[in-house]
Design goal:
449 residues; Potassium Channel Kv1.1, Chain A; 17 helices; 36% helix; binds 2-acetamido-2-deoxy-beta-D-glucopyranose
Length: 449
């Protein structure tokens, strides 16, 4: 006897998974057939929260609960106040696998997930943190997240936080968060050449203001990380005489200040002849002030080629600051490298074979408007900062560094999707660029070719 199975077409799925999740949550809410009681004590208070839970569900999610529940059905758990406040959400996650989270809840929630070894939740919260560095919070949260990431040894999160802080340093230095920066974090930031900020002087001021009273050796290390040659001699003189921290620790940085004054008083080429200097002191960071570059907002960037020009100082040495260099910039939204250009075929009398416009990619070229003998011994490294809007705030999405043209890079705006109005690189349909020109004196910085 043949049974007609009706073919695959009649197979249907009855899917009540949502209703099941709903019932599991009710189980927790009403405490029906509970066989485990969790008494959550808040550290430093008499408060105790009681949850009627189920061994099966707790053990399923957490081996820590499994072993705790092995010989007892009532557990007393001690939690810090911020974790205790989230405990109900946390337990609910164990029953239904879903949780909503706010910026200030990330650390206490991650702490709970780590304590009870819920690795899916640990990963989820770490991922949330990486994606919400630019989230809106009144006192800032990235510094706190960085310190937490160090404590738990999450290197990827540390790196994301550092990158965020480096590129958004001006904003962070202006916020109340700056006061909570640890000495270790400050030293790590001071080492970086990719800090985005108005000027080196701004950095000095922030270091001075944000300085906790650490050991003398630490203050001196910090002061020695400031790139004094990038500060104008008049400002240096002012610091030397007026800054209380400088006055107090003058002996520790005397040699650097002296070197910076010498750097300003001779041509850099001449200077290098007499001094064997080779250090980051002479490398500019990403300064936003006008002598180093210019902002460029390109409306409708996908439409056609655009150009602009602006002026910068020849170099940070006082010998060069008054000399201006004019730069021409060309932006092409769909530039094709020669190998991909349309081929003009003789046989079809000049007809264009398959132009593959979609192969074009954004390109930006920066050239000096004139050549000058002053440029000898100086090369100009260019950095383009791309601003994006996230959660209503503008912040730096990418920094691209190159010598003359973004052809040198494989990834310039590669994921930008400028054609799409919804591209996350566009703010009100405009591309927000900031171009920085960094003069590098070859004779001073013998960088590897
Ligand atoms: C069942 O429904 C839920 C929610 O509607 C859905 O997320 C899930 O993918 C469905 N499962 C199957 C096997 O279709
Ligand atoms: C759980 O308990 C509540 C109140 O005690 C009761 O109304 C409800 O029907 C119970 N649910 C189940 C699934 O037993
Ligand atoms: C359960 O076992 C642990 C060690 O295995 C022990 O420390 C604890 O006191 C036991 N609890 C009860 C209620 O027996
Ligand atoms: C300059 O310093 C770098 C790293 O500190 C080093 O690798 C390089 O060899 C030095 N160059 C000279 C010429 O001293
Ligand atoms: C990041 O930096 C940009 C400009 O540098 C600033 O407008 C923005 O507010 C910063 N974001 C945060 C979260 O500090």
């Amino acid at each position: 006897q043949k049974v007609d199975l009706g073919g695959e077409a009649t197979v249907a799925t009855i899917n009540h998974s949502l209703a099941l999740l709903q019932r599991l949550q009710e189980l927790l809410q009403n405490g029906n057939v509970s066989d485990a009681t969790l008494r959550v004590r808040t550290a430093g208070s008499d408060e105790v929260k009681v949850f009627h839970a189920h061994q099966l569900l707790l053990s399923l999610q957490s081996e820590v609960f499994e072993s705790l529940l092995h010989n007892q059905s009532t557990l007393t758990l001690h939690e810090a106040p911020d974790s205790a406040a989230l405990f109900e959400k946390f337990i609910r996650y164990l029953y239904c696998g879903e949780i909503s989270i706010l910026l200030h809840q990330a650390i206490p929630l991650h702490r709970l997930a780590s304590k009870y070894r819920i690795s899916s939740l640990q990963k989820g919260v770490a991922e949330y943190m990486k994606n919400h560095l630019a989230g809106e919070s009144s006192q800032g949260h990235v510094v706190g997240w960085y310190h937490y990431a160090v404590k738990i040894g999450d290197e990827a999160l540390q790196e994301s936080c550092l990158q965020f802080l480096a590129w958004n340093l001006s904003a962070v230095m202006a916020s109340t968060e700056w006061a909570s920066v640890s000495v270790e974090l400050l030293l790590l930031l001071l080492e970086r050449s990719d800090l985005v900020l108005q000027s080196e002087l701004e950095l000095y001021t922030a270091v001075e203001m944000g300085l906790p009273p650490p050991a003398r050796a630490v203050v001196e290390k910090m002061l020695r990380s400031v790139r004094y040659p990038m500060i104008s001699p008049s400002h240096l003189f002012h610091l030397q005489k007026q800054s209380p921290v400088m006055v107090k620790h003058y002996r520790a940085v005397q040699d650097l200040l002296f070197q910076a004054f010498q750097f300003h008083s001779a041509s850099p080429i001449h200077f290098a002849k007499y001094f064997d200097v080779n250090c980051s002191m002479f490398l500019p960071r990403n300064y936003l002030s006008a002598s180093w570059g210019s902002q460029w907002v390109i409306n409708n960037p996908a439409r056609d080629d655009r150009s602009t020009s602006f002026q910068t100082q020849l170099g940070p040495s006082n010998h060069d600051t008054a000399k201006r260099v004019t730069w021409n910039v060309l932006f092409s939204p769909r530039w094709l490298p020669v190998s991909l250009r349309p081929v003009y075929s003789d046989s079809v009398s000049g007809a264009i074979q398959s132009i593959r416009i979609e192969d074009g990619r954004p390109r930006l070229v920066i050239t000096p408007a004139m050549t000058s003998s002053d440029f000898a011994g100086v090369s100009f490294q260019k950095t383009i900062l791309v601003g994006v809007r996230q959660q209503g705030k503008v912040f730096i999405k990418h920094a691209y560094s190159f010598h003359q043209s973004t052809d040198e890079l494989a990834d310039f705006l590669i994921h930008a999707d400028l054609q799409k109005r919804t591209s996350e690189y566009l703010i009100d349909n405009s591309l927000h660029l900031h171009i920085i020109i960094k003069p590098v004196y070859h004779s001073l910085i013998k960088v590897k070719k």
